[in-house]
Design brief:
2 domains, about 10% strand, Rossmann fold, alpha/beta
Length: about 230
């Protein structure tokens, strides 16, 4: 589907590490799960190579590399993580104000997380209503990030052209997916996992259209990209 030109850019947000400060919790529990299943995978390796990918893709990667199938351990992983989310999860600092400043632009979530996890985390952090009904999971497409499928699917659901979209991403896989979709991209390095994942070093190396370290800087970054395209 190719939609009409948008009056302003459509904003497509990754969730984990962009809207919610979830990555340290997720990596901690995922690393624990994979090691208990017998895979010699460190948290540093998860930060380095797996951020931005779905858990299904990560377990497939671990199976291919180490011959360990952790699928049976995933229900317990999800239950532990849900408990930690309920106790510890917070939105990214300043994201609610940034979204309010960007009110009026089409917006959506495009995440590698499952629909159930998106429902849980966005409701816990009070962000669900800012995006519903356009909250989309990689389970809706054949290939997850770094393939462009999810972002192209979300653009079609919004009724806009890929060229009229700006993606906000914190992962290597996500930035590559946005670029493959022909969309502009803002790299975000403001999550609490940024140092562990070396985002300030690695995201600029991919040459996104902008890189910001605070949610407060997002409205200005969007305005600059919109003016450059006008």
């Amino acid at each position: 589907m190719t939609g009409p030109a948008a009056a302003g850019p459509a904003l497509i947000f990754d969730c984990d590490g962009v809207l919610i400060d979830s990555e340290p919790l997720s990596v901690s529990e995922l690393g624990r799960t994979l090691r208990a299943a017998g895979a010699p995978v460190s948290d540093a390796d998860i930060y380095d190579r797996m951020i931005g990918r779905s858990v299904a893709e990560i377990t497939a990667l671990v199976r291919d590399e180490h011959g360990v199938d952790a699928t049976a351990d995933l229900p317990a992983y999800r239950a532990r993580l849900a408990d930690r989310f309920a106790a510890e999860l917070r939105p990214i600092a300043g994201i609610a104000a940034a979204l309010a400043a960007l009110d009026g632009l089409p917006r959506a979530v495009a995440s590698s997380s499952t629909p159930a996890r998106l429902d849980l985390t966005l409701r816990l952090t009070g962000l669900w209503d800012a995006f519903a009904p356009h909250i989309h999971s990689a389970t809706e497409v054949a290939r997850g990030k770094p393939a462009p499928d999810l972002f192209l699917h979300v653009a079609a659901r919004l009724g806009v052209r890929p060229a009229d979209c700006i993606v906000i991403e914190d992962s290597i896989a996500g930035v590559r997916a946005a670029q493959a979709a022909g969309m502009r991209c803002i790299g975000f390095t403001g999550g609490s996992h940024a140092a562990a994942a070396r985002l300030a070093e690695r995201l600029p190396a991919l040459h996104p259209d902008a890189v910001i370290a605070r949610a407060a800087d997002l409205p200005d970054a969007v305005a600059r990209l919109a003016a450059a395209r006008a």
